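Hello,

Our lab assistant flagged a job as stuck in the queue for most of the afternoon. It eventually completed. Since we weren't sure the result was trustworthy after the delay, we are filing this so someone can double-check. Below is the sequence as submitted and the structure that was eventually returned. Let us know if re-running is recommended.
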Amino acid sequence: MKNQSNFGIIQIIRRISFAAAIVLCTVLCFVLCGCDVENLSSLSEFSKAYTGEYDCTHASLAGEDLLEEYAHVKLALDKGGVFRLTAQKKRGTMQSVYGRYDYDEESGEITFSANLFGRKLDKTCKMQNGSFTICQSLGGKELVLKFEVAG
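-- returned structure --
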């Protein structure tokens, strides 16, 4: 009976030691790789799940469908905070716009900043379930662009 209880205690000690070793190895890996553990405040900030490519599923200006003219319109969000919007016309010409973006994890809002026609333009919108809509007034007409995760 005494041997069985000693065996159980030894097993518990081994499991605790193994778990402690894994935690220690993980922390050492972050330290040795130059990763600041304090800045890994959340899993989504670490993984930056919002980065990647988005397809424009709706584009209109004053109610007129703009996607009829384009083969595709894509938005790429890089991990470094840079976005790239590319629009490929059906006739082959491609247009690109680059800028910066910032994602606020707490509010779920994404803010885009770009220089267009010599003006700095900032636009903030809410990201929900991998999609967001940008609305902007252009010359008194409403531009609406809806993006969803590509796939």
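-- support follow-up --
The delay was a queue issue, not a problem with the job. The result is valid. Residues 45-149 form a domain with the Lipocalin fold (CATH 2.40.128.20). Residues 23-46 have pLDDT under 50 and may be disordered.
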